[in-house]
Amino acid sequence: MAQDAQPSELASFRQPEASQVPRATPMMSQYLELKAANPGLLLFYRMGDFYELFFEDAETASRALGIALTKRGKHRGEDIPMCGVPVRAADEYLQRLIRLGHRVAVCEQMEEPAEAKTRGFKAVVRREIVRLVTPGTLTEENLLEPARHNYLLAIARNKADDDFALAWADISTGEFFISSSPSAQLLSEIVRIDPRELLLPEALLAERDFAEALRQMPASLTPLPLSRFDSANGELRLKSYFSVLALGGYGAFSRAELAVAGALLDYVLLTQLGKQPSLSPPRRMLSRQTMSIDAATRSNLELVRTLSGERQTSLLTVIDETITGAGARLLAQRLSGPLTDIAAINARLDAVSFLVTEKPLRQAIRARLARLPDISRSLGRLSLDRGGPRDLANIGHGLTVADEIAALIEGHVGLVGPPQEISFVAASLSLAHVNELRTSILDALAADPPLLARDGDFVAAGHRRDLDDARRLKDDSRKVIAELQAVYMEKTGIKSLKIRQNNFLGFFVELNQQNGEALQRGPCKHEFIHRQTIVSGMRFTTVELADLEQRIASAAEKVLAIELEVFSALNGKVKEAEQAIARAAQSLATIDVAAALAELAAQRSYVRPIIDDSREFFIKDGRHPVVEQALKDRHGDDFIANDCRLSASEGNGHRIILLTGPNMAGKSTFLRQNALIAILAQMGSFVPAAEAHIGIIDRLFSRVGAADDLAKGRSTFMVEMIETAAILNQATPRSFVILDEIGRGTATFDGLAIAWATLEHLHDITGCRAVFATHFHELTTLASKLKHLGNFTMNVKEWQGDIVFLHEVAAGAADRSYGIHVAKRAGLPPAVIARAEQVLDLLERSELSATRRELIDDLPLFAASFPATRSETKPGPVENRLREISPDDLSPRQALELIFELTKLAACK
Q: pLDDT tens for residues 505-524?
């Protein structure tokens, strides 16, 4: 569930007036100043090896993280609550806090305590906020999910057109999009984008229904002042950010779209403390470019997560054969937004088809992709100066893989040449100046560089001579001193000459008294400078030795300084080429998805669908991709395939299937599998079928399953009716609708009437393609009235008093629901099953009005509600004998004898 941020926290950074800060110790005063400047954020206050939290922050963090709450000193006479986390494990705690929707300001020590003491005994170590960590602005590898985008989304209402403008970006990869959505489809768009953090004007949260709907989403809500959503400021911010004089080259944006884009960029710069992440120019997405799928349908179909909220066993998990994190993210993006552009869909299908056919090429590409790091996220960190040597190495190795894959594609010799999408990928990966950068990076870096530049030892030996010399001094100082000692021995001719060291003199040349005096008279007397005379001899130094001592002392600092210089230079080259690298990263993700979908098709016998502008929907031997895989994994069973033909293009074809049959026979599976096949086809994937021909679908609707929303006072039936209303009000002739058991949540006649009217509306008014599953067998008579309605049923066989589900769809109508058989399998008590069979027999043999009285007469449970029709009867001998008994007076033996007596009396009756 979403968690709201405090609006004031995001307005700006500010320093409070001194009068606002209560009197406290110098350290606590510093903390309170930083906290006052960043309200609403948990303040990670660096103190040595720990990040400490105080006051309410400590109480919140201790609850969220399950860590001990202690205290430190007093403030205004009360104990100060405190808790802390080790710096070395801070990322783990940050991850947990972010997932719970919290925001964190990270405060670091900017100097050593010794430096602070030079300003006075009571001086406090200087600290600054170096980072604001929010759910939508993460870049750290260990805080991000490799297979999921980390979108930050901004929305605002366009009052002129009563629609909404949206802007969303993933600063970890640089993707940036702008779009508009009708009010009715806004929640569907938000679910499709699946943001981690949602920015919106404070006024929207004042709208109760709208705010409640947003709070049901997993995104963290961050309200901002309305002034942040200013279109003029947004236009200026976009021009400044991308260094352009006009935005026409990126598309025609509305004022509301400019406003949300500006608000998003403002927030990014605010949280990154002015650092500018490398975002690509905004791409304008039109809502009509993707299949519209509302939130309820996405949930029912379990596209990217199951109804329980897990990603495992969702459609995405089952079809995901990608190798790289970027490929997995792109696959999820395509699945969440299937296309409606026929040419674009077929371009994707061409790429998959090519790689299905060219198996050796596909396998070679996938082998290279297995060595590919996540270069888009490494590039994102480097652009924010938050990256390290390992990120540079990722860029170098990633560009190597890119070059190898480009060579594979360009060198491919086959009967069929690469399609346009594959050729475009190869062109994006073959860039001379990028290859030069790759060579520079790999030549400069060691084989296994550390995560952080400050750790050093990441520049390869031989890359810079001065670095090698400094390292030699740092690592082999004894050897260097021994070499110099040998030089001095040869120069002076004194074999007993030694170079020694102590804390007072540092390095020095030591000789016995006789050799020392000889040295002072010899030819080297001006080179060797006398330092000290002791009982055992004399000590000297030289300019060379003093210089060597200084170089040894500063060698470690110099090594790190040179390595940081190398890192900075390489990082600068990466930033210069970031657009080309980003294109290469996107192309690698594209080829990964195409190869993964080809592998999926080859492994599971998926076929290429025909996608055109007709209103055809024909699936031959269609299969449910998730259920099919589950059957194979668990039991090794084959899925029973079924056809589905909705020929809306033909004047006399079935446009709507009315599907009847028992529970557990596979109706819901059949409904869902056809919807999933349509989604797979329009995302550019092969589909689980023998043949597939789908006329483009603009909107997909599903009303499957039962759920309530008690928090909003909505019963299961109310939720069902709301979802059905959305379908009937929004579906178009090009839509595809699956409906399961409409009207079952109310009285029989009411439910039947609603289902009847819904079916007629879909047929006569909407004119869409639909599969309508029901237990109201009375609806089958509509086939004679509605020209484009066809009756189909789930086949079953009865065998020795039980039923066998064949899971086959066939023309015709079911005459029974076999609900009692299902209840028996579920384990209802035999007495209940027997009585249910009695009641069913009465219902099937009688008119409803007569049957109702007969049932009431036979069931005393209902006698209180209806007048009795049987005459009063006199008590029998058993009843009379029971009235004579006083249970308290009976011994165990007498009670046993009484039971035998009552049994005989009952038998006589």
A: 889 999 999 999 999 988 88
